[in-house]
## 1
Amino acid sequence: MEIARLSTTLGADVIISSRSKSNLDAAIASLPEGVAAYAADATIAQEAAQLLQDLAPLDHIVVTASSGMAASSIPDTSPETAQAAFSRFWMSYHVLHFAPNVMHSSGSITLLSGSSGRRPIAGYGVWSSLHGSIESLVRPAALELAPIRVNAISPGGIGLAPDRQLAHHAGQPIDIAKMAIALITNPAVTSTIVDVDSGERLGTWSGEASAMPSR
Ligand SMILES: NC(=O)c1ccc[n+]([C@@H]2O[C@H](COP(=O)([O-])OP(=O)(O)OC[C@H]3O[C@@H](n4cnc5c(N)ncnc54)[C@H](OP(=O)(O)O)[C@@H]3O)[C@@H](O)[C@H]2O)c1
């Protein structure tokens, strides 16, 4: 939402997408005028391909979809549940696979991973491996999709209390949006993963939070 809002403010033509038309209608109602919406399930390869084809030609894509799963450990998570969580990996893969044919070569793709991808915490094994898998897409895709640029943002603790972080600022969605715009607009940045986590990747947080969101 904040990426769409900031992009529109900066003059971009923005299209948002998710599965639910009612979610999209609600989002559009709270965004600046001119934002368009397209409903599709990005876990289904054909729907992702159709979405991208219908919206072509595109300049920049940011993949922010989550799989709505709470943090859990590898021993405690059934293969079926873990596979559902990894739908997020496949959404990113679908975009990287189908987008090059429908994008301007000067464009960029930005993925979203998460701070546990490079700093595992006991009890968060599925998230850690999911975030790591998304980050592992960035460098090979940057090589293979060039000159289209491919980067990722690794968020941590966005919207949560700052008690687990170095910086005295709990990251907010607008902080992610500003980084997304920086990656989109800087033509010299590709194959990069940028941490926006107020420093928690250094091990300042042990995983003991009472209210963690699902991702
Ligand atoms: N907040 C943090 O600190 C943090 C930390 C690490 C990683 N992240 C990651 O950063 C990203 C953005 O976070 P967020 O808090 O904005 O996520 P969010 O509020 O959970 O938003 C997820 C969006 O994904 C859409 N979505 C879910 N499944 C989809 C599908 N199959 N196809 C298309 N769209 C789908 C949802 O809409 P519908 O339900 O309508 O489809 C929703 O709009 C997520 O990937 C999250 O995991 C966040």
## 2
Amino acid sequence: MYRDGSDANETVIPFGTTLIRMAATLRHPELLAYRDEFPLLSRSTYLNTCSLGALTDRSRAKLAEFLDQWGSLGARAWYTHWLEELVGLRDDFGWTIGRPAEEIALAPNVSVALASLASAFDAPGARDPGRTRVITTTLDFPTLGHQWLARTPLGVEVVVLPSPDGLTVPLSVFDAAIDERTLLVATGHVYFTTGAVQDITGLAALARSRGALTVIDAYQATGLLPTDIAATGVDAYVSGTLKWLFGGPGNAFLWLRPELLEALAPTTTGWFSSARQFAFDVASLEFASDARKFEMGTPSVPSAFVARGAMELVREIGIPRLHQRTLDLGALAIRLADERGLSVRAVRDDAWRGGIVAIEVADPKPVVDELARRGIIVDYRPGIVRLSPAFYNTEAEVEAVIGALAELILPS
Ligand SMILES: Cc1ncc(COP(=O)(O)O)c(C=O)c1O
């Protein structure tokens, strides 16, 4: 069963008392034609896209373009090329969630995007004084909780919800916690250790019914899950290019629901947020009427060029194909790991699984180091080895990694 209802070529496998459905063959083998554009893939077995997507030749070519412009035009390049490239990056990010460039604020990373948003709630009158709580979960990436923990001196209280199964946080857990003291529910679209997809539509409806806002960290979803953000009802969405957009470090974004974008104003800012940026008027600040309101200072232009090279490829392939092939590779990894007797920590239903398959290992670092010695790149988090095959990986690579893991982990 696939989230997009596409022609799933399924196999049904008994798992405990339930039947699980998985793709019998990998869809979109035609995408393997792109492998040649990723030099890393011929040098290693790379199953670590959830940490950092591999570099494409298109990014390298775009970076060379940036350097040529700098070398030949100097500061003129801002007006002839670079500002336009930033508009293009906003447009690329907007495309991933079905929204226009004007609703996208660029940031150098998700932490800055979140900090800029969080600063808006520091303004007097920006929130109901009774709403002091920010709810997050134990499965979330630390920067999400840290934004609000840093504000405990300002009266913010952070509530960290548990995960009953170590994989997911069901809506019932949020339901029990969100109340009239809740300002925000801040959680992931796809959890970074378990790859579980959160029901952000259900969560947004639940939060709204109690007068709270939702802030979603989509780093492990963007480029992987087809997303119509307006249809989900979430209030704020942040993500970046490091992982499933293959665009490297230095590029992230903040999207706000249009009514919220209008209502909120940051209290941490920079001159790129000004409606009259090139008036150079130090004495007055009028924010841009679009999402640039939440931008800061001079962006990392080389990073934007690198990202745009990769985005060209992502747009060419389209997120539904990237999603389907990634799901199938993950399903294959789960099936092979089960067969070998490895302890898999992953959601069994494709409809609620992203691009990560975790294998439980008490002391994962030496295992990951040994794999790296053998030319297999994966990574680890406490208690797990994280595998994240992407569209460019082959069936044989997944088999090789599971085989090597079984050899290293299981008693001989
Ligand atoms: C879910 C999630 N959020 C955030 C980040 C990174 O945040 P930042 O862009 O602030 O480094 C990562 C990975 O690096 C992540 O997996």
